[in-house]
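[Automated response] Your request has been received and processed.

Submitted sequence:
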Amino acid sequence: MAKTRKARANSVGEATAATGADPLVQLIELQTIPMPNGILGVAEVSKHIGFPVHRAYYIRDVPTGESRGAHGHKALRQCFLCLRGSVSLSISKHGRTETVQLDRPSQAAVVPAGCWRDLSDFSEDSVIIVLASDEYDEADYIRDHDDFLRWDAGDEPVTAVSYLDLSRGSRALGPEIELAMRRVLRSGCLIGGPEVADFEGRFALYSGAEHMVGLGNGLDALVLALKAWGIGPGDEVIVPAHTFVATSLAVDEVGATQVLVDVEPDTGLMDMDLVAGLVTERTRAIVPVHLYGHPVDMDALRAVIGKRDIKILEDACQAHGARYKGRRCGGLGDAAAFSFYPTKNLGALGDGGALLTGDPATAEAVRTLANYGSREKYRHEVPGRNSRLDPLQAAVLAAKLDHLDAWNARRSQLALRYFLGLADVRGLELPGVRAWAEPVWHVFPVRAAGVRDELQAFLAARGVGTNIHYPIPVHLQPCYAGRWAAGDYPVAEALGKSLLSLPLDPTHTDREIDFVIARLREFFAC
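Generated structure:
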């Protein structure tokens, strides 16, 4: 019997090697310590299991010929240990099935999320321990095999699509995030320290910048960059009229004068044909906003600036991983501001931000300003503020950074699905994409001039969540009443009345996006 089981396990390994796929089941050798008073077997979360354990149960006294399991889990991860006897474990996912034999307590089988599992061939004396990544949750179970196959293939019927459900991502990465946070708590370093330094170095390298300073949020990153450059009263800063208001608030906070520029109708990005006419001898900086994850034409911007001493401050708060002519946003200007707000492509579990730059003097000045204007404890050289990326958020972001490229690739797949499914719909305009751009689709904005509000209500009534980025342009915000007038920036105003953001997130399924496409086509066919 043992020989048969060994041969069966080997055949699974050979089949996996032949397909080149990673094994579904990870077999782990546990730490075994022989001692005079018995054998100690050890399974540690970080070294062996790979996920925190929130539930443990055992299986014993299974009648001859009976089996256990016969269900799937959507998000639960499990570790199976056979403390006595033997058992056969079969795991299925994405059309593949692997079977392993557990017949010694020094070996464990780790099963990832999203699998169907069957336990069979129990020996009479078998005792099985199961360690689970979460407590009991019936909603995570799939008990019918046909239902599991539909779920596994993404063929479940869709009746509603949320605009964004952050809990999906949290469930998928929950164990990794929990381990990262546990590591920080055990370190006792809750302000600054190695977790922040590690993430700063990794994200700077990822984005093509030399330096990163972790900060409290994206607005602080914009403000502190301008302050570090000495920009203030009497200076002008050019910003787009169509952006989130934080871009403008940053200029106000340092006391400089905002000079708004209208935007391109198909991308919402600052119109370079208009920028040149706005540059004066007082212009100290220009803030190109890589809106919705689509980069601005940086070469065109540099051509406008020429040899003048004008800083470029990228507002990359929606562009984590986006590329301009092969280079990632964040390393294209004199500095770049990022936000790690939870909804971003790379989002924290709360607020967070960063300033990236290739200039060590800028990085040092921002770091000093963000630490109460101090480089030495209790000695404050300039009036500063408190703006920090804390180690808990840094650890979470570092764990997520490993997945960012895959998430962005998935966003691009779903964006392409929208383009293919909506290209021929009259009355609906799709976002423009420049040939040199690799956008990351933080937002997928469509334009429905004259019917946007009716379309949003129609979709909501059919279970489709949407958003508007942004309904009120900067110059018409109440906080700027009297500074500008309606009609000053007509393209930005037209976008505010026509844009509608469709659901697009790495956790959305193909069928969900198809559901949205069908509802849009239904509206415009009426």
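Summary generated for your ticket: The radius of gyration is 27 Å. The chain has 15 helices and 26 strands.
If you did not submit this request, please reply to this message.
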